[in-house]
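Work Package 3 (structural annotation) set out to generate three-dimensional models for the target panel prioritized at the project kickoff. During this period the team completed the workflow that converts sequence records into discrete structure tokens, so that structures can be stored uniformly alongside our sequence database. As a representative example, we reproduce one entry of 233 residues exactly as it appears in the project archive.
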Amino acid sequence: MATYVMSDLHGEYDKYCEMLKKIDLSPEDTLFILGDVVDRGPKPVDILLDMMKHPNIYPLMGNHDLLALDILKKLNTEITEDNYADHLDADTMNELLYWLRDGGQTTLAQFRQLTAEEKADVLDYMEEFSICESVEAGGKTFVMVHAGLGNFRKGKKLREYTLQELLMDRHDPEVDCFGEDDIYVVAGHTPTILLCGKPEIFHSHHNIFIDCGACMGGRLACLCLDTMNEYYI
């Protein structure tokens, strides 16, 4: 049994499938995906549909997933006499335009091809994405969250962080949040080329950044938490 973590798949379905083969993911293994499954790349919904088949894949919410979920729920709502006046108000339209400019076109296009039952299943699945997870592997504890612990303050409880701080704010790679040798923060969101100049997993002060820019000409990365082996597509 092994525990793996990936992040920021961004619709790169082919790379995702190649990675599952590369790590030879078995039903006894566990794979955490730290958000931003959707948008930008060509097949985001295909990834979601495949993830839904694997009870040993645990998805966490990313900022792209949260925005896509919010908009798709609104677009998938039946218009009635009670809601037609404010169904797509100005704020929703601005949100929709922002999402489309930020890569939402591929997610929307694939979602529209689903049956009504499939659409409901996908939205239900995304609603269950967790915000933060911790796991013990290889004698260490890993706190996993999409963007990291933004606006970190010593003594700040995980429950005190806002969605903005966990899903959007950049995690400071120079801050050792827990101050213990065996506790690490694992995050995506920030492409590692911005941190170390290379599309590879970046380690700093008990922080591990794993977004290697799969949809930006970089690579999809996967880390085995038990052995710290790194895999790339």
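The domain at 3-63+129-232 is CATH 3.60.21.10 (Purple Acid Phosphatase; chain A, domain 2).
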